[in-house]
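lol ok so funny story. i was supposed to be doing the assay writeup but got distracted and ended up predicting the structure for this chain instead. priorities right. anyway since i did it might as well share w the group, maybe its usefull for someone
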Amino acid sequence: MFFLKIVAGWIAYFALHSILAADAVKEKCRLQFPGLFPYYRIIYNLIAIGGLLFLAYASFQDSNSLIQPSFWIKSIGLFFLLLGVVMLGVAFASFNVKEFLGLKKEEHHPDTKLVTKGVYRYVRHPLYTGVFLLLPGVFLLRPTLSILLFVFITAIYIEIGSRLEEQKLIKIFGEDYVRYSKSVKRYFPFIY
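and the output, tada:
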């Protein structure tokens, strides 16, 4: 029953994450709650962070290791974990962090340019790349069934989420994004 709750929790979390990120939902909230809408991004992030911390805590309650990790397995896990953290840092450095967190009003202008410099020269979704790098690290450091389920569901969600995000980007940038996506890999340079 515990594992079913973990799976249901992560699926619900990622579904809510996508629903709240949808432009149609944002527009409906803007019309229904015009006074609160300037805080939409902050509320979205609080829900995302709160849900993530709650589910991560619940997932880590499973202490039954599937394998007994050796020093080398733990070292490899730590390597991937740190590599993922570094990649997330690089990705966040290319954003306006205050805007991303909702602490500054989002500025959407019709003349917004597609960013293809910095880390975006190598991958289209550097935040997802960072998470993909973290996932094996988390599992190798804590190889339990609940963490394996988290890793599996998260990987599936990232693939689905990136495709949904790319549909939005094609709407915004049109042929520029299509050309960019043909020349730059999704998560890992030269691979995928």
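The mean pLDDT is 91. Residues 78 and 137 are 6 Å apart (CA to CA).
back to the writeup now i swear
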